[in-house]
């Protein structure tokens, strides 16, 4: 992204160094060059330089207002108050339109072509889409165009400078955000603790159930053993021993029957 681009930071730093010794007309030339340079989109640091602020009460005040416009203004602001600003060149116009798109992206995650055409003063859809593509390519916003619906769906956008009169409001918003984050952290900590306690309770219950099952199994086993007669095995053994003797008795001496001899002669 541009805000994290080393080349952009280095370029702005060079202008800030030059601004320490630039006064009046030289300061104006620095402003023109900085606003025309494609790598520079954040100019708050340059705007805060004493020699830039010194232009406010000079004949070059309109250039300071132009620098402020690029810091936190929009192309609509420029068109609405044209008499307060000097004429812009093509590069400056394109850049201010891109920064205006960034401002709209901060207000809504979905920006329609209709709104963009109105805010950027562009009647041609093809020209508008070129501005959108260049803004995305520069890393100022990320998202995608939906040409069928005629909208730009915003995923993220680079931050812009804050107006001096908005600093207190920004501090208030950040304080509220900080408190909300702290509440969320406390809620997460409480939820974590409750989840840990629930897990420990379930583990204890599982152990109790397992122990109860083991005790029940042992109790049933003891009952089976207690109900079995102690002499049952002995009776079974006696029966096995008696059977062979019975067979021997039944197969003992055979009774011999004498059949009378019949004489065939008689």
Automatic annotation (TrEMBL):
The stretch of residues making up the signal peptide is none
Instruction: Domain (PCI): give its ranges.
Output: 1-159
Q: Which UniProt keywords apply?
A: Coiled coil, Signalosome
The record's section on Pfam families has:
CSN7_HB_subdom, PCI
Start and end residues of each stretch annotated as Disordered? 218-266
Q: InterPro entries under this entry?
A: COPS7/eIF3m, PCI_dom
Could you tell me where the Basic and acidic residues compositional bias lies?
Answer: 218-245
Q: Which family does it belong to?
A: Belongs to the CSN7/EIF3M family. CSN7 subfamily.
User: Can you say what this protein is called?
Assistant: PCI domain-containing protein
What organism is recorded for this protein?
Octactis speculum
């Amino acid at each position: 992204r541009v805000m994290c681009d080393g080349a952009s930071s280095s370029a702005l730093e060079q202008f800030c160094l030059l601004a320490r010794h630039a006064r009046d007309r030289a300061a104006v030339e620095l402003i023109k060059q900085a606003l025309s340079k494609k790598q520079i989109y954040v100019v708050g640091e340059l705007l805060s330089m004493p020699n830039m602020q010194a232009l406010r009460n000079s004949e070059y005040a309109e250039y300071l207002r132009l620098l402020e416009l690029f810091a936190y203004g929009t192309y609509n602001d420029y068109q609405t108050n044209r008499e307060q600003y000097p004429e812009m060149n093509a590069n400056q116009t394109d850049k201010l339109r891109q920064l205006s798109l960034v401002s709209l992206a901060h207000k809504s995650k979905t920006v329609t072509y209709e709104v963009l055409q109105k805010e950027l003063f562009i009647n041609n859809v093809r020209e508008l889409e070129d501005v959108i593509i260049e803004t995305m390519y520069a890393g100022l916003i990320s998202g995608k165009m939906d040409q069928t619906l005629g909208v730009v769906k915003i995923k993220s956008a680079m931050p812009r400078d804050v107006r001096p009169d908005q600093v207190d409001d920004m501090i208030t918003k950040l304080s509220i955000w900080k408190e909300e984050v702290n509440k969320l952290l406390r809620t997460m900590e409480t939820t974590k603790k409750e989840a840990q306690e629930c897990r420990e309770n379930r583990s204890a219950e599982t152990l109790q159930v397992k122990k109860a099952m083991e005790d029940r199994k042992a109790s049933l086993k003891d009952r089976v053993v207690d109900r079995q007669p102690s002499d049952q095995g002995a009776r079974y053994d006696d029966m096995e021993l008696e059977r062979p003797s019975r067979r021997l008795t039944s197969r003992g001496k055979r009774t011999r029957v004498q059949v009378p001899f019949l004489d065939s002669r008689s």
